[in-house]
From TrEMBL:
<dbReference type="InterPro" id="IPR001932">
    <property type="entry name" value="PPM-type_phosphatase-like_dom"/>
</dbReference>
<keyword id="KW-1003">Cell membrane</keyword>
<feature type="transmembrane region" description="Helical">
    <location>
        <begin position="203"/>
        <end position="230"/>
    </location>
</feature>
<feature type="transmembrane region" description="Helical">
    <location>
        <begin position="171"/>
        <end position="191"/>
    </location>
</feature>
<dbReference type="Pfam" id="PF07228">
    <property type="entry name" value="SpoIIE"/>
</dbReference>
<feature type="transmembrane region" description="Helical">
    <location>
        <begin position="29"/>
        <end position="46"/>
    </location>
</feature>
<protein>
    <recommendedName>
        <fullName>PPM-type phosphatase domain-containing protein</fullName>
    </recommendedName>
</protein>
<keyword id="KW-1133">Transmembrane helix</keyword>
<keyword id="KW-0812">Transmembrane</keyword>
<feature type="domain" description="PPM-type phosphatase">
    <location>
        <begin position="295"/>
        <end position="508"/>
    </location>
</feature>
<dbReference type="InterPro" id="IPR052016">
    <property type="entry name" value="Bact_Sigma-Reg"/>
</dbReference>
<keyword id="KW-0378">Hydrolase</keyword>
<feature type="transmembrane region" description="Helical">
    <location>
        <begin position="141"/>
        <end position="164"/>
    </location>
</feature>
<dbReference type="InterPro" id="IPR007895">
    <property type="entry name" value="MASE1"/>
</dbReference>
<dbReference type="InterPro" id="IPR036457">
    <property type="entry name" value="PPM-type-like_dom_sf"/>
</dbReference>
<dbReference type="Pfam" id="PF05231">
    <property type="entry name" value="MASE1"/>
</dbReference>
<keyword id="KW-0472">Membrane</keyword>
Length: 515
């Protein structure tokens, strides 16, 4: 494996160094040095026991290539020292900041890579290499340091960034992105006096917004190579720019680096957003209990739908559990908010309700206890809760609603909203809560839900409730229909939902239903 890695490094380094001399060379000052990224990525991907072999290979190749192009042996040794000290410095610093596997899609890893691998390491190399150029070619030190640093930094950014983010699964998309980027960059950099050099930037940013780094980084490398090649051939605005050569080369690399970095940061931002949305969705699902298909005397299903895709965590919740004396308790609640604070308040209220239900005399006492609990739970003020318990042997349902929409009962006689047992939301008017009872016929459906299912902008609540009753009645009368999914996904409405929606659907069976 070591010899294979050394062979790959040797070939890639040689090709990049030859390009630096033949294609990117401008008045004896290297503009873009791609091998800087080859060595850096090799060090970052391999264990430290392989570093001496990699650096030795690079040093020998650098001397041979430089001497082959007519440089003095002493100058070749100076460049070999620069091109080994540079990646070694960058790799050591990056590894100190990121000890484990490097993932440039994580902001901390990307910043460490940029600060140490792209800025600090090439600066060390430019100190040595710039001094070597200044002594060998009788140039000013700064005019030698600046293009050396800019060329190595851009090479480290684009090549090492591409290698570190490479994924085989993204290869077809990356290849397409590279071809399109080269074509657009050629169009942008071909005219000398027509300012079209910015054309690749929208493409690169679009890739950054829609594609992973495994696609964005190769496109950035393609743009960098194409722009430098065209400039070296006398095309584009930088070839026609008046002024010192070191200023032209440094500003070209700066322009390219800013474009690539902008696309990278955009990609990382989108990736972090997607990861946060996924984590929030998992958190929401973890906080909502898994309900079995059948409990004693009832069958239960439940579902949750966010109002939009910008948030996947909020305060809507449901619960089903065994209560004392053979009863089954079930609840639906709504805490105001669509963030982690609302989810935390929801989780605490849910736990409090379960505890209260084990000792309370009935739903009214459970809600009264939640009034007291909500006073010490941040974010629980003004939340709404519907709680009920059902006794299968007697078929008696007891229920109470604290500011919550009324449960919907479907029987052979038709839909009926249970408006009794209603009171204000939690912590508004602490005190005794009303409770109602209802005898449930076999085969009846009970639907508890949150207001996001029925409320729409510009529409009365009465219209939303009628729509729910009609859709639920139709779905319940069709054998094999998933009523919960029908209500969440197919309920007709005249406008967008303004809140998340939770549904708890219960079907009441005979008293002797299997456990």
């Amino acid at each position: 494996m070591r010899f294979r890695v050394l062979a790959i490094v040797a070939v890639a380094y040689t090709v990049g160094a030859q390009l630096a001399f033949v294609v990117f060379d401008a008045d004896s000052i290297v503009v873009l040095f791609l091998p800087a990224g080859v060595t850096l990525s090799a060090l970052l991907l391999r264990p430290r026991r392989d570093w001496p072999w990699i650096l030795l290979t690079v040093a020998v190749l650098e001397v041979l290539i430089d001497v082959g192009h007519g440089l003095a042996p002493l100058s070749a040794l100076g460049f070999a020292a620069a091109n080994t000290a540079e990646p070694l410095t960058g790799a050591l610093l990056v590894r100190r900041a990121v000890p484990g596997p490097i993932d440039l899609a994580q902001r901390r890893h990307l910043l460490a890579f940029l600060a140490f691998g792209v800025v600090a390491g090439p600066a060390v190399g430019a100190l040595i290499g710039g001094t070597t150029i200044a002594l060998d070619a009788d140039r000013g030190w700064f005019s030698s340091f600046l293009p050396f640093w800019a060329g190595d930094a851009t090479g480290a950014l684009t090549v090492a960034g591409t290698v570190l983010t490479w994924r085989r699964s993204a290869l077809p998309r990356a290849a397409t992105a590279v071809l399109v980027t080269v074509a657009v960059t050629t169009v942008g950099f071909w005219p000398q006096h027509l300012p079209l050099f910015y054309l690749p930037i929208p493409l690169l940013f679009w890739l950054g917004f829609t594609q992973p780094l495994a696609v964005t980084m190769p496109a950035g490398l393609a743009m960098t190579v194409a722009a430098n090649t065209l400039t070296g051939a006398g095309r584009g605005p930088w070839a026609a720019l008046d002024g010192p050569i070191e200023l032209k080369t440094a500003t070209l690399q700066l322009f390219l680096a800013v474009a690539v970095l902008g696309a990278c940061f955009l990609t990382v931002g989108v990736t972090e957003r997607d990861r946060a949305v996924g984590a929030a969705h998992q958190l929401q699902q973890a906080l909502l209990p898994a309900v079995g298909p059948q409990l004693p005397g009832i069958r239960v299903s439940a579902g949750y739908r966010p109002a939009d895709l910008t948030h996947h965590v909020g305060g809507d919740w449901y619960d089903v559990f065994a209560a004392p004396d053979g009863r089954i308790g079930f609840a639906v609640g709504d805490v105001v908010g669509h963030n982690l604070a609302a989810a935390a308040a929801m989780a605490r209220l849910q736990s409090a309700l379960r505890v209260l239900a084990q000792t309370a005399a009935g739903p009214a006492e459970v809600l009264a206890g939640l009034d007291r609990a909500s006073a010490v739970i941040d974010g629980a003020h003004m939340c709404t809760v519907a709680y009920a318990d059902y006794h299968p042997p007697t078929r008696r349902l007891r229920y109470a609603c604290a500011g919550h929409p009324p449960p919907l009962l479907l029987t052979p006689q038709g839909p009926e909203f249970l408006w009794e047992g209603r009171s204000m939301p939690l912590a508004i008017e602490p005190g005794p809560r009303p409770c109602a009872e209802h005898e449930i016929p076999t085969g009846a459906h009970l639907i508890l839900y949150t207001d996001g299912l029925v409320e729409r902008r510009g529409e009365s609540l009465h219209a939303g409730l009628n729509r729910l009753a009609g859709t639920a009645t139709t779905a319940a009368g069709q054998p094999g229909t998933d009523l919960t999914r029908s209500l969440l996904n197919r309920i007709p409405h005249g406008g967008p939902a303004i809140d998340d929606a939770v549904i708890l659907h219960l079907i009441f069976e005979g008293a002797s239903a299997p456990h």
